[in-house]
């Protein structure tokens, strides 16, 4: 559920639902979002601060690290060579006589160069390391998350968003609350930042204050067990770049905080473009890299 914490945000939700219905997108009751009243939102969230919201009849959760480890196990069992802890320093293009790409690496089990026919930049917030031309297009931005101790005898639900999406929270089966966000409270704003080695105290305080102020049950017994940061890739129009960059170089990056629901479809799309099953013009036009990378049109 997207939860409004102000009357203004709540009116925005009502307007969204009206537009959704006007476009005829609410025909499937099982999947269509619905408006939730203030009373219902407060009951669902256990928070008196809730002013209303939008609920989606279906939603899901996954543990990203476990998912990635499981995916790595699957692809390696099918012959993929996964090189961890190996820094890619540069991608070089050669013509002899056809295009060949050289991935220059260091560290890990493989040091030196890897020669290949295609390269996909699935580098998100770190894209400018290899493509400095995109340093103003895919901007690395710090995100922050905390996890509380298990909360017993509480009904605070998971899969909720607050403050125009700047806060997002789930509750794990063991009762732990996982809360991320407050990027809008970061003192450096959206300034480029690739340092994920330390948390930002201002954001840490904002996350804790939100839990204490929004949920009365947590005011005197908030116990944060873990906290960490991560780097996301933000684009000027908040949409990813997915498709061909030039020649045999491709990109799937710039998810602007929405990588989990988009990256798997993006990977599938790029793979199908590489083998010729999908044309760029038949994919989502708003994701075409050519809007920021004119050479992709050549």
Present the secondary structure layout.
Layout: E1 2-4, H1 7-22, E2 34-36, H2 38-45, E3 52-55, H3 64-77, E4 87-95, E5 99-106, E6 112-116, E7 119-121, E8 139-148, E9 160-162, E10 167-171, E11 177-181, H4 201-214, E12 224-234, E13 241-246, E14 249-253, H5 259-274
Parallel strand pairs: 7-14
Antiparallel strand pairs: 1-3, 2-3, 4-5, 5-6, 8-11, 8-12, 9-10, 10-11, 13-14
How would you describe this structure to a colleague?
- This protein has 298 residues and is α+β, with helices and mostly antiparallel strands.
- The chain has four domains: 1-59, no CATH class; 85-117, no CATH class; 119-130 and 235-298, no CATH class; 139-234, D-Amino Acid Oxidase, subunit A, domain 2 (D-Amino Acid Oxidase, Chain A, domain 2, 2-Layer Sandwich), CATH 3.30.9.10.
- It contains five helices and 14 strands.
- The chain has helices at residues 7-22, 38-45, 64-77, 201-214, 259-274; strands spanning 2-4, 34-36, 52-55, 87-95, 99-106, 112-116, 119-121, 139-148, 160-162, 167-171, 177-181, 224-234, 241-246, 249-253.
- The radius of gyration is 22 Å and the shape is globular.
- It starts with a strand and ends in a 24-residue tail after the last helix.
Helix segment tally:
5
Q: Biggest sheet: strands side by side, in what order?
A: 9-10-11-8-12
Q: Which class of secondary structure composition applies to the elements?
A: alpha+beta
Measured by DSSP, the beta-strand proportion falls in 25-35%
Tell me what the CATH architecture of the largest domain is.
2-Layer Sandwich
Descriptive keywords:
5 helices; 23% helix; globular; three-stranded antiparallel beta sheet
